[in-house]
Predict the 3D structure of the following.
Amino acid sequence: MNTQRRRLMQTGALMGLMASAGLISQAEAAAWNKAAFEAKSIDDVAKVLGGGAPQKSDQVVLRAPDIAENGAVVPVGVETNLKATEMAILVEKNPNAMAAMFIVPAGAEAFAATRVKMGQTSNVYALAKVDGKWLMASKEVKVTLGGCGG
Amino acid sequence: MASPMRIRAAEKDGVVDVKVLMKHDMETGQRKDAAGALVPAWYITTLEAKVGDKVVFASQFGPAVSKDPFLNFKLKGAAKAGETITVTWVDNKGETRTDKAEIK
């Protein structure tokens, strides 16, 4: 069996085990969105996520530096005052655009901050799902030292 | 067993600010080691934060999240000072780590 399939089955098996042990409910053990993370371009990711093409919105705030000193560790944040149920951070020129996705249950603020790798200067997108539709904000982040190694 | 995460959760004016620092190499699968061989992809894929039985926040990561992943999120209404927040991550090899912290 090839390694990837074995790994996927192991993860699936583990999730199933954890769910049946009551550690995480079936619904919450939301399987890792492989298709979204394997999609290449921003458009490809949007197609996988569904809900139509993301619309620019000034109510979605993307926090990212103008210049990233170290492409391996770029602080990025997404937030909105709107009721977002999901959010995502995408880096346009990375081999796969989607860097991270966040699920926002009731009782959490639509806010997330993390650090991502950027291979080169690129547009970075913050997406927020509001009423089933994706809204977005973007900016260019310049990278002096690329962050994917090699 | 994987190294522990550092979790800081503090309430202020009804909002609990949670910062998690995980220990994980987050290999993209594109890096070559000193011998020139490709280092296999190895990265955290999912993270879940719970207070009691309730999932209060969840994330999915890809290999583009930086090594030793950092995550900051905020809770408003789902938790308060004195409660315990439990964070669990799972990686693409099926390894997992759970840590907890008291919300200050």
